Amino acid sequence: MCAESLYRLPAAQASALEFISWNVNGLRACRKKTFDLFVENRQPDFLCLQEVKLNPDVIPEDDFGYTFRHYHLAEKKGYSGTAVFSKEQPLSVVDDFPGGKHAGEGRMITCEYNGFYLVNVYVPNSKNDLSRLGYRYDSWDPDLCEYLLKLQENKPVILCGDLNVAHQAIDLANPSSNRKSAGFTDEEREGLSNLLAEGFLDSFRHLYPDQTDAYSWWSYRAGARARNVGWRIDYFVVSQDLATSVREAAIHSEIEGSDHCPVGLSITRG
């Protein structure tokens, strides 16, 4: 379920496609901890990473056993960045939004496969002083929703990544004291609500609507992770057409290596 202690995909799910998304908060640092062992043992069909924080001259040569790999890095060295690995070659790969909007920070990769689009995203943080909240609310979130709806006209969409928002009070340990904090403002929550209202599903809440204490990010301060004082800000959001295909949505809170843990999705093969 949400905090299963398994590295390997259960045998009963062997006929499913497994997806893992992980904000690694620096791939090189995470590889010194649990990353390689987790990927080697879990072997998901699709692996999506956020905040890889790599420079072009230090991209790992390792493909971690995957047929396809693609990095999309920020122009600013050691900042942001995303990556997708998969066991099959995509039909197409596109970085950022059409027309180059929101480019420069390496925040989104879209891979088209037979039967679905996979969109890996690292949504901008509104910052502690909320200086990027207007950008999120007025531009990024609406543009992402519009983009996903356009993709969905062709085939179903699987969106994954660090969305930098806890959607409901159940999705963070201390909602009352964080009402005006980045990641739980009304504006950020509305952005995700608007996307879900268009027919997309939060896969975890689709399966576990009442699950409490299920978080994917913890502050490094005050022993937050050990006390499970966290936020659920990492998601798999899927088109309504895939609702009956969703077999599992997992939060691998036992896997350390970053301030985020991996989250997973298992769907029936089409």
Query: In what order do the strands lie side by side in the largest sheet?
Result: 3-4-2-1-14-13
The average pLDDT is 94
Total of DSSP H or I helical runs spanning 4+ residues? 5
SSE topology string: EHHEEEEEEHEHEHEEEEE
Rounded to the nearest angstrom, the distance between the terminal CA atoms is 23 Å
Strands, total number: 14
CATH superfamily: Endonuclease/exonuclease/phosphatase
CATH topology: Deoxyribonuclease I, Chain A
CATH top level label: Alpha Beta
Percent strand equals: 25-35%
Quickly give the structural class: alpha+beta
Domain module tally: 1
| Poorly predicted spans | 1-13
- Helix fraction? 10-25%
Biggest sheet record: 6 strands, mixed
Would you identify the CATH architecture?
4-Layer Sandwich
Note the overall shape. Answer: globular
Output the radius of gyration. Answer: 17 Å
Description of the structure:
- By secondary structure, the protein is of the alpha+beta class.
- The chain has a single domain (11-268), classed as Deoxyribonuclease I, Chain A.
- Helix content is 19%, strand content 26%.
- It contains five helices and 14 strands.
- The chain has helices at 27-31, 35-42, 133-152, 186-197, 203-207; strands at 16-23, 46-50, 68-72, 82-86, 92-95, 108-113, 116-122, 157-162, 200-202, 217-218, 230-231, 234-239, 246-251, 263-268.
- A hairpin with a 2-residue loop joins β6 and β7.
- α3 (133-152) runs parallel beside α4.
- It starts with 15 loop residues before the first strand and ends with a strand.
- Mean pLDDT is 94; it is low at 1-13.
